[in-house]
Amino acid sequence: METKLDDLLRRAAARLRVAVERRLSDLDLTAAQFAVLAVIASAEGVSAAEVARTENLTAPTISVIIGNLERRGLVRRRPHPENARIQQLETTELGLKRFEAASACVDKVRRRIVGGAQGEELQVVARWLAHAAELDI
Q1: By residue range, what is the domain housing residue 113?
Q2: What is the pLDDT of residues 85-94, one digit of tens each?
Q3: Following DSSP, what letter does each residue of 74-93 receive, concatenated?
Q4: What is the CATH number of the domain that holds 115?
Q5: Cα dihedral 62, 66, 67, 71 in deg (nearest 10)
Q6: Rounded to two decimals, what is the model's pTM?
Q7: Cβ burial, residue 68 (10 Å; 0-12/13-18/19+)
Q8: How far is CA 89 from CA 49, 118, 137, in A?
């Protein structure tokens, strides 16, 4: 059963990733850019290091993603009021609009994947996935 479960998780994750990437491409965003934009939009003033930790990305990767978002006018940096070495990130008006549009696209994909699953069923799966995501293995 465990091997089959691994295979099912891998296939479901791959299907989700492909579907999200396809939908986001219409908005000229990648899934990674959307994830980073989501963190920044939900926690204005967050640092790049905090975004990297949240999304489990390396510093060089997050630097490229944020640089691309910044060049496109979706996020901006501002100096931290107490530590000049830290840059705080925030979404621009354009970034927030793009994030909202992207969120609607991703929500459609999520609803499609959830399909006919019922409330309690979804809660059990969500708890298990949250547990699995937090394991230190």
Answers
A1: 2-134
A2: 888 999 999 9
A3: SEEEEE-SS-TT-EEEEE-H
A4: 1.10.10.10
A5: 160
A6: 0.82
A7: middle
A8: 11, 38, 31
